[in-house]
Write a structure and sequence with these properties.
The complex is a heterodimer of chains A (314) and B (121).
Chain A: H1 8-50, H2 52-66, H3 87-110, H4 116-140, H5 151-169, H6 173-223, H7 233-256, H8 260-277, H9 281-313
Chain B: E1 14-15, H1 19-32, H2 40-61, E2 65-66, H3 70-91, H4 96-115
Antiparallel strand pairs in B: 1-2
Helix pairs in contact in B: 1-2, 1-3, 2-4, 3-4
The chains are: A mainly alpha (314), B mainly alpha (121).
Chain lengths: 314, 121
């Protein structure tokens, strides 16, 4: 039996093709899914952060709507003119979320969807954005700054900016991708942990208690309507409709548990890191099922954000 | 740029109020504000207390205290006690008067605490 010999160049070419065939799709599809879900999740979370001050104004005015005896005094001290939450601190969190979405997009690009030249330009821009964001957080955390929690973001942002900057100059994308995912594990995990805590603290707690306040205020006002039996049916219907909407809002916030989305985001990222560290069918399947769960939560959060928006426009 | 090493950041120990339990207190106040077992006056009082506690929560979110401020521990103990009282009150509304008194006490404890908060900005 004759022995078939393979030329070393042919062997190398075969290995390269095999690697490309096996590794690229293994990363490409899940990273694209991770990027899509992260983009949608960060957009939905942004809505909650951006509404913080507007929501407090709404509660303040509702108090006056249901109780005509209440006046609007000391205007400059009211939420109408003084934001209870520093807009700069909100803005920087929104920027952080956008950069997280950009980081996911960068990984997706690195997985092989863009021309190398454009890729380098994109990653350099992202590294620059992260550095600028880090500077903003540093300012907020300075002695004259307004946001002491911002210090938690400064370190990880600097590290990620370094990792991205390094990936931008790497020649081999698959290696750069693997390295970026693995090196990014610790700082990205820290950002997720801070975001989860921050989101629960500033958004979930205030929104849950705020929506219950709104509902209680409306119910209390309804219960105190003098001679309710003489109030025309249409007027009562209107009052009950407002109560129903407030109850819907409280129920949606309670059921959706918006803070869980950051947890799901962190878990999906962790599964991605696991795949980068050890690419095999088990880690790939585990990542795909985690991404599936992540996507379901993102859809639920997006739907909840839309429902809440609809309740406000009604 | 050279990445910063976050491990090198020294953390100054700061104390925080138990805002999770405070949110629970607020919720219990609002639930009591619609209780059929309470008089309209008591319901109004619970609603007003819930709103005042929520106002304290909003202020406390951006406040921090040095580790040696013992008033934070006292406030946390008070929050825990009031939360339990409110939960008990929901189960048995007989002790509402006591609860109202304790919530009022908690509000003044938190007001005093905020006076010694480290100013921001």
């Amino acid at each position: 039996m004759s022995k078939t010999t393979i030329h070393p160049i042919g062997w190398l070419l075969g290995l390269t093709l095999w690697t490309a065939a096996c590794q690229q799709p293994a990363y490409k599809e899940p990273i694209a899914k991770f990027q899509e879900s992260t983009e949608a999740a960060t957009a939905a979370i942004e809505v909650y952060y951006s509404e913080l001050n507007g929501y407090e104004r709404e509660l303040y005015l509702l108090e006056r709507l249901v109780d005509p005896k209440k006046e609007i005094l000391d205007l400059r001290k009211t939420p109408l003119l003084t934001n209870p939450f520093d807009p700069k601190a909100i803005q920087v969190r929104v920027a952080l979320l956008q950069q997280l979405a950009n980081y996911a997009e960068h990984l997706s690009t690195l997985a092989g969807n863009d021309a190398p030249k454009r890729f380098r330009a994109n990653t350099t821009t992202l590294a620059g954005n992260l550095t600028a964001l880090q500077n903003t957080f540093t300012k907020l955390n300075s002695p004259t700054g307004t946001d002491k929690a911002a210090k938690d973001y400064v370190g990880p942002l600097g590290t990620i900016a370094g990792i991205i900057g390094e990936a931008a100059t790497a020649r081999k994308r698959d290696k750069a991708l693997k390295k970026a995912i693995i090196d990014g594990e610790a700082p990205i995990n820290r950002l997720f942990a801070f975001l989860e805590r921050d989101f629960r603290k500033y958004v979930v707690d205030t929104r849950v208690s705020g929506s219950l306040q709104k509902l209680t205020e409306l119910v209390n006002a309804y219960n105190q309507v003098p001679k309710r039996n003489t109030v025309p049916r249409d007027e009562r219907r209107q009052l009950l409709l407002e109560i129903e909407q407030a109850a819907d809002e409280y129920r949606i916030i309670q059921e959706t548990q918006p803070a869980d989305i950051v947890k799901a985001m962190r878990e999906a990222h962790q599964a991605l890191v696991k795949l980068a560290k050890d690419t095999n069918p088990t880690t790939l399947n585990s990542l795909l099922s985690t991404l599936e769960a992540y996507n379901e939560q993102v859809e639920a959060l997006t739907n909840a954000a839309l429902e809440l928006e609809e309740l406000h426009t009604n | 740029m050279r990445p910063l090493n976050w491990k090198n950041f020294t953390r100054i120990k700061m104390k925080k109020t138990n805002n999770t339990l405070l949110v629970s207190c607020i919720e219990q106040c609002f639930f009591l504000a619609t209780s059929s077992q309470l008089t309209p006056k008591q319901r109004n009082e619970m609603l007003a207390l819930g709103k005042r506690l929520r106002g304290s929560l909003i202020n406390l979110l951006t406040a921090q205290f040095n580790d040696d401020v013992k008033e934070v521990d006292e406030a946390n103990a008070e929050i825990q006690a009031v939360d339990q009282l409110l939960l008990d009150a929901i189960a048995a509304v007989d002790n509402v008067a006591d609860t109202v008194k304790r919530v009022n006490q908690l509000i003044s404890v938190l007001d005093k605490l905020l006076e010694i908060a480290i100013p921001i900005g």
